[in-house]
Structure formats: C-alpha cells, structure tokens
C-alpha cells in the first residue's frame, strides 16, 4: 500500500526551479533510495515532502491524504520525520535535550522513555554523552544523534538525507545496518537519499534516479545495481 | 562612601530596568534576527496601562500591594497583547522579505505607537502614583537606598530567575532555544515556529511592561516619549552584552546602568548619554560580538 506519493512535484527557490515534475511512490515497509549527483534536487525533494520548501505544482499524499498544504509541524504529527543533510544537531543543547526535542509532539511519557532506552541501546555512546552539548560531538556521533532524534518521534516514514556523508567506511556500514534494523524491527518505512549509491541500493527494495530535478530511472534495487548506466555514473564501475 | 553606595544602588535600579527591556530585544533578535525598534514603545505602553489601571483602581481604596499587583497584571497583559499584535501585523507578513523591510516596518511601528499615545493622551508629563510601598526598615538608610530601589532590584532578580527556569525547562522554553539555534530543524521536529515567535514577543513585552511600571513608580511621571530613549539604552545594553544572548542582556543592562550612575554622579549629569554610547562604541571596536555574544555580528 502506498504510504507516500509524489505526483508531478515542481518546486524551487526564488527564480530557480529545481524539481520538474517529480513522481515517486513509497510503499509501507519498504526501503526506497533516491540517488543522484550533487545538485540534482534530492534534498529539495525531501524538504518539499517535509513542508519546508513549498510546491509550485503537483501534490504529495501521505497515508492517502494531501500534505503539501500542511505546515511542517503537522506533517511531523502525521508520522513523517526527516534527518536532514548535515545532521542539524542543536549545537547548544545537550544530547538528551536534542533527543527530547525529537519527541516534541509526543505526550506518552512511558512510550518516550521506552524509545529513549531503545536509541541508547542502538548507540550506547549517546548515553555516555547525554549531558554533553550536541555541538561538541564528533561527526559520527552527531549522525547517530540525528537518527536517534528522529526515531524519538516514532515515525512511520523516515526520510534520511545522506546519512553517510563525511563518515568513515566502518561507521557508514554501522549506520546502514541500523537503518535496516529500524526498518525490520520497527516496521519503519524509509526513504534514503544517497550520493554513494552502492550501499544504499544494497539496502533498498527499490530505487529512483534523479537527474536535474527529473526522475530518469525507477526500478528494483538489484536491477539498478545491474544497470550499466547506473553503474557507470553512480557506482563508478 | 555613602555617596558611592547611593550611586551604586541607583545604578542597579537603572540597570534592572535596562536589563528587563534588553531581554526583549535580545530574545526577539535571537529567534528572528530582527531589531524590534517598537520594543521601547511597548515599555511605554506598559507604563501608561499601569497608570490607567492604577487611576481606575484607586477609587476602590485597595491596599497598596493589591493596587500594585493589579496594575502590574493589567500592564503585563495589555503590553503583551500589543507585542503579540505588532508581530502579527507588522513583522509576520514580511518574514520572507529582504532583511531591511521588517526593520523599516519596526521603525514605522515605533513612530506610530509614539504618536498614537501622544494624540490619545498628551505630550506633557503625567504624574504617576507611587505604587511601591515605603518600607519602614529602610528609613535609616534614606538617601542611600530607597524602597523602590530595593523592590526593583528584587523583582528583577526574581524575574530573571523565573525566566531562566522557563527557558531551560518548559516545553515552550526548549522550543525557543531550538528555534534560535536552528530554525529549519526546529520545524522538522514539529515545533510551530510561528507560535514560538509569538511567545517570544509576549514574554519580551511582559518583561518590558514590568520595567515600565517599576520605573514610572520610582520616578513619578511618564510621557509618550519615555520609550524612545529607554529603548535605545536597552538596545545598547543588549548589544553590549552580545545581542541574542540572554545572560548578555542582563549583564549589559547592569554595566550600562552602573556606568551611567557613576559617570553622572562623579562627572556631570550633562554627559549621561555620552557615557552610555561611548561605552557601546568601545565595546563594538574591541569586542564586536558583545561581551557574551558568540556568533559574528553580521546580522546586526
Ligand atoms: N536554499 C536554497 N536557495 C537557493 N537554491 C538552492 C537552495 N538549496 C538548494 N538550492 C539549489 O537547488 C539545486 C538542488 O539542490 P539540492 O536539492 O540540495 O540537491 P542535492 O541534494 O541533490 O545535492 C542546486 O542547484 C542548489 O544550488
Ligand atoms: Mg543534498
């Protein structure tokens, strides 16, 4: 069943149009990856979904209802969260406060407590550092915190924008393993944006290739991995 | 020595008022990067509201503390309503406009409110009743510290403490800090930035109204121009401390108040404003981000 649908979405900034009629669909339980070169419009797509960048044309449905007219906080309330590119940790807040803000819209204290324990079990280092300021964490720890903060909202759909950016290969593999685990164990649907396509295609069910604001290929992940054009441009083979 | 102590306390009194007003400038700047030039007028409106409330309530022969408390409540509520409305009408529609537009709108709002009160009231000074009780135990120290000095200082201290608790522990306070640090991310965790901005104007206006009532009662008169000079001084205090920094606004307020008090006491009262602004210029030359400011002040 379709959890998220983008129909002919166009969006941009000022005079620049970035997205030219993007159509894609994410089904419940899937991991979908959106790959594309730097500047293709991947982050803009996620920001449009989250309600930060307004649409110029087209529509976005989440759980069957249009969300492109809603303010960002209502989209979060419906169960759609984003870990933006560059992590965006609140630098002057402690690790614990960053996590608390992830659950900003929740009222169920016990559920929050449980999810806090869960993210601390995923990333024990965050528990050790819980009283430190977010701005003082290393890049890898910040990425763990960014993902954990989003999980604190208990999302049904998680948007991840280049979670591997700037991370050492080992840390990247660890993050990807956890993304798969969240998807399996919590049944959280995931839309994963990556420039480094090989890892994300291996983790995903299906993938879309974005070029200059247009979807140029949409296929099963293993078919994309075998696709000669994709291999040449995005996998560096 | 008595003279020194007297100047010290009068500096703390001034400093308290500057700090109360400076907090509004710094909080609004921290959240939306705007210098709210109409903020001084909010303080003035707070004082006028307190005067109106005290005048009406004086017919009911209430005890002085009740009169003070009710006038304070009226001033806080009415000034907050103004702050909330000004943001909605004059700044929110310009949220995505070039930076200069809301600034000009703020200056326009300031002039408008000044003239509105000027026409509705009078350009002359109006007497303001002494709402702060006289404490007998301070009588031996008359001339060094008055009851209103003490009340102003204590009230300010309590308000600062409550404000820090509010910012640190409440949901709205956390949302304010998050929005000030990263507005896009605040939206992505589900914070309604519009509501945070409104709350910031309401809190800042309430603090200014408290300052307005206290100083009006201390000095004993008000007119529609008191917001202009107090606003500029408090803005100076906020820049001095590092605009956007809450402890900075408090520190800047007290430094400015004490400097003015000693300078006018030992040098000449003719140069009161000269000292204040010289201090500002010196700080801006040697510490452009202010005493406790961190970010480069490119936003100013
Ligand atoms: N805030 C912005 N203002 C103006 N242009 C932007 C902004 N963000 C991105 N762009 C432009 O939009 C295009 C797509 O950017 P983006 O969506 O970040 O691409 P990607 O995430 O695929 O690298 C780029 O040309 C970029 O310069
Ligand atoms: Mg990007």
List the helices and strands and how they pair.
The complex is a heterodimer of chains A (237) and B (300).
Chain A: E1 2-13, E2 16-27, E3 31-36, H1 42-49, E4 55-62, E5 65-66, H2 72-77, E6 80-83, H3 95-102, H4 109-122, H5 124-128, H6 139-151, E7 157-161, H7 169-185, E8 189-194, H8 197-203, E9 206-211, E10 214-220, H9 221-226, H10 228-234
Helix pairs in contact in A: 3-6
Chain B: H1 2-32, H2 39-57, H3 64-91, H4 100-120, E1 126-127, H5 147-169, H6 171-181, H7 183-188, H8 193-219, E2 221-222, H9 226-241, H10 246-266, H11 272-286
The structure holds adenosine-5'-diphosphate (ADP) and magnesium ion.
Structure write-up:
The complex is a heterodimer of chains A (237) and B (300). Chain A is of the alpha/beta class. Chain A has a domain at 90-153. Chain A has 10 helices and 10 strands. In chain A, the strands form 2 sheets. In chain A, strands 6-7-8-3-9-10 form a 6-stranded mixed β-sheet, sandwiched between helices. A 4-stranded antiparallel β-sheet of chain A has the order 2-1-4-5, covered by helices on one side. In chain A, strand 4 (55-62) and strand 5 form a beta hairpin. The model of chain A has no long low-confidence stretch (mean pLDDT 94). Chain B has one domain: ABC transporter involved in vitamin B12 uptake, BtuC, CATH 1.10.3470. Chain B is 73% helix and 1% strand. Chain B starts with a helix and ends in a 14-residue tail after the last helix. Mean pLDDT of chain B is 91; it is low at 296-300. At the A-B interface, helix 2 and helix 3 of A face helix 6 and helix 7 of B. The site of magnesium ion (MG) has 4 residues of chain A, from helix 1.
